[in-house]
Amino acid sequence: MIDALAKQIDQAAYKHTAIEQLTKQQSFTEQQAYQIQAASIQNRYNRGEHLIGLKLGFTSRAKMKQMGVHDMIWGRLTNTMLFEEGDTLAFHQFIHPRAEPEICFLIKQKIDRQLNLLEAKQYIEAIAPAIEIIDSRFKNFKFSLEDVIADNCSSAGVIVGKWHKPTIDFSNLGMALSINQKPVQLGSSAAILGNPLRSFTAATRLAHQYGETIEAGHIILAGAATPAVYIQPNQYISAEVEQLGSVGIKVVD
Ligand code: OOG
Ligand code: MG
Fold first, then answer.
1. What residues flank ion ligand 2 with Cβ within 5 A?
2. How many domains is the chain built from?
3. Whose CA is closest to atom 9 on ligand 1?
4. Which 8-state DSSP code applies to residue 122?
5. How far is Cα 229 from Cα 212, in angstroms, rounded to an integer?
């Protein structure tokens, strides 16, 4: 069951074609959903992709409310999901992409256990503003918590801005998502579990619980501070974070 569902969701992502929710075919638990995610990402590794970090999702009330779910989730980021400023996002390679303003951590040293808030900063090399592109493989972007976990938490793209030393206090920074330089969502980093550092420690807990090691050079996305916004070709998408600056990317057909 796990492998068959994993193959379906991987193919939907690979062919950027929406499918019915997996839970409509077969019910499964949250734990099995993470097994489906792991098996589906194995298909990517078999195609030559590699892990570059982890992402947390539903770490803000705004996101939980938008998507009608009740719990934090985590997913895996691979090298083909990474874009740089100056690249373009090809709309046709997605299904119905949405953008979110995020904060990204760069890992300084290997982490193979749960960290607490006091020690966490020693493991962070740098922080940056980021845009996450999510693209549910399910029709109409509708899913249950189990579905979205199996779907690697809708992960599809990450654009990371300039790195900054983690010495600044990033617990309550203004954040915005803009389209064509016009803000469409406004929030604060405090919306992310009260402090994005909590997302980081949650990532260390979940990675440890599920047997993933966080390596030096990996990135961790803390989760969106605001609801996600659908994007379209010919738009310029940017995220601004107070004190960290902005990052942007152009969407083409
Ligand atoms: C799931 C991904 C959520 C976030 O930052 O909260 C997420 C989704 O909304 O499709 O990436
Ligand atoms: Mg996100």
1. 100, 132, 224
2. 1
3. 67
4. G
5. 30
Q: Residue 138's domain is classified under what CATH number?
A: 3.90.850.10
Q: What is the number of alpha carbons within 13 Å of residue 234 lying toward its C-beta? A: 0
Q: Name which of 106, 116, 122, 135 is nearest 13 in CA terms.
A: 135
pLDDT tens sequence for the chain (253 residues): 999 999 999 999 999 999 999 999 999 999 999 999 999 999 999 999 999 999 999 999 999 999 999 889 999 999 999 999 989 999 999 999 999 999 999 999 999 999 999 999 999 999 999 999 999 999 999 999 999 999 999 999 999 999 999 999 999 999 999 999 999 999 999 999 999 999 999 999 999 999 999 999 999 999 999 999 999 999 999 999 999 999 999 999 9
Domain carrying residue 237: 2-252
Closest CA to 152 of 6, 28, 1, 253: 6
Q: Name residue 177's beta-bridge partners.
A: 185, 239
Give, for ligand 1, the residue of 61, 71, 72, 73 to mutate: max count of ligand atoms closer than 8 Å to Cβ. Answer: 73
Residue among 176, 163, 168, 179 nearest 217 (CA): 163
Interstrand relation of 236-241 and 245-252 (parallel, antiparallel or unpaired): antiparallel
